[in-house]
Amino acid sequence: MGREFASAVARWCHLVDAPARPEIVGVASARETSLGWFKENVATVKLATTDYREVLGDPEVEAVYIAVPHHLHREMYVAAIEAGKHLMGEKPFGIDREANEAIRAAIAKRPELIVRCSSEFPFFPGVQKIGGMLQRQEFGEIIEVSTGFLHSSDLDPNKPINWKRQVEFNGAYGVMGDLGMHVCHVPFRAGFEPVDVRAVLSNIVRERPDGKGNRVASDTWDNATLLISARDSANGKTFPWTLKTQRIAAGEKNTWYVEIFGTRASARWSTRNPKLLEVLRYEPGGEQVWQQHQVGYEPVYKTITGAIFEFGFTDAILQMWAAYMSELVGAKASGRFATCVTPGETGMSHRLFTAALQSQERGAVVGV
Question: Which end of the chain is more exposed for a tag (fewer CB within 10 A), N or C?
C-alpha cells in the first residue's frame, strides 16, 4: 500500500485544482528491497532507512502514512503522534480494542494533528451518489442494510501462509480486522450505530505451506458473518444490518458492496460492476421498479478524465488521498462522505468486532 500511495502521488497532476500536493521525502521499511523500489521510482526521497524512528525524527516530514502488520500499529502510530506528525494509518487501527484505545488516547493529547484511517472504496462515484442520498435523507425509514467485502484466493489450501493468517500478527479479529473497517465506513458515516451482534465466524483452511516444505497453523478467522441490530441516529429506530467479511468466497476476486433498503428509496452498488448503480424510489401506491444508472468518472475531486470514462481502484486511492490532503490544509469537504475514516469510527469498529468475538464464543447475541 505504500507503493500504491507513491503511485498516487506520481499521478497528482491528474487532479484539477487540488488544494495541496504531497511530496514523499522519507521512507522506512524493514526490507531493503522495498527501499530500493522507492529510491528507483520516487525522485523526491531523501531519506531511506530500515528504522522508522529516523523518519519520525526528520523535521522535514510533516505527515506519515504507516502501512504495517496489525501488531505494530500501537507502537508506530503512537510514536508518530507523539513526534507531532499528522498520520494516515491502516485498518484496523490497532490489533485489538486495547491497542485502539491507546492510539486514540495519544490522539486526544494532540488535537491539532489530522489523524485518519485508510478506506478508499466509498470514493467510487456510485457510492458517493448513495452517500448523497443518505445525506439528503431520501431513504425514509431504514428497513435493512447489507454490506460486505469478499475475497476468494484463500479457497486454495496451497496458498502460502502470511502474517494476515496468523493471530500473532493479525490479531484475534481475523478477517474482520483485515477487511472490516472498509465494510463499516459507509454505515458508520451514515449514523448507523451497532446496538448488538450475533456473529458466525469460520476458520476453514487451518494449515498452509510456509514456503520451507512445512505446513503451519493458519489460526485466524477466514470468514465472518455478523447480524447486527443497528440504530439510525437520525430517528432512533433500529433495523437489521448484515455485515460480511470473507477471505473464502468462491468466485469473488475483490468484491466490496453496499445495499440500503428504505421505505421511500433503496439503492445497491458493488465493485463487481462499478459503473452500475441501482436505485428504487417508491411512492405509496406506485410501482416498485429498480432503475439502473450508468455511473461514469464523476469523482469528489475533479480530474482531467471525462465523465464518460470508467473509474477504478487506483482512482479511488487517489481520491482518498486528495481528501486527506484537503483536510491537512483546512479545505472544506463537499459532503459528509467525502472525507476519510476518523479515529472515533475505528473505535466503533473495535467495539463491534470485540462483541463479535464474544458472540462467537458464547453462541449468543452480545451488546456492542
Answer: N
- Rounded CA-CA distance 175/209 in Å is 19
Q: CA-to-CA distance for 71 and 252, rounded, in angstroms?
A: 28
Verify that 155 and 183 share a domain, yes or no. yes
Domain that holds residue 204: 124-309+343-367
Tell me, yes or no, whether 191 and 293 share the same domain.
Answer: yes
Lateral strand order in the sheet of 290-294: 290-294, 276-281, 265-270, 255-262, 142-150, 238-246, 223-232, 192-202, 366-367
Same domain, 28 and 106: yes
State which of 94, 117, 140 marks the end of a domain.
Answer: 117
Distance CA 169, CA 135 (A): 38
Tell me the CATH number at 85: 3.40.50.720
Residues belonging to the chain: 368
* Same-domain status, 146 and 224: yes
Label the pairing between strands 276-281 and 290-294: antiparallel
Contact in structure between 46 and 147 (CB atoms under 8 Å): no
Q: What is the pLDDT along the chain (368 residues), one digit of tens a residue?
A: 888 999 999 999 999 988 899 999 999 998 888 898 898 898 999 999 999 999 999 999 999 999 999 999 999 999 999 999 999 999 999 999 999 999 999 999 999 999 999 999 999 999 999 999 999 999 999 999 999 999 998 999 999 999 999 999 999 999 999 999 999 999 999 999 999 999 999 999 999 999 889 999 999 999 999 999 999 999 999 999 999 999 999 999 999 999 999 999 999 999 999 999 999 999 999 999 999 999 999 999 999 999 999 999 999 999 999 999 999 999 988 899 999 999 999 999 999 999 999 999 999 999 99
Burial of 150 (0-12, 13-18, 19+ CB in 10 A): buried
- Domain assignment present for residue 335? The answer is no
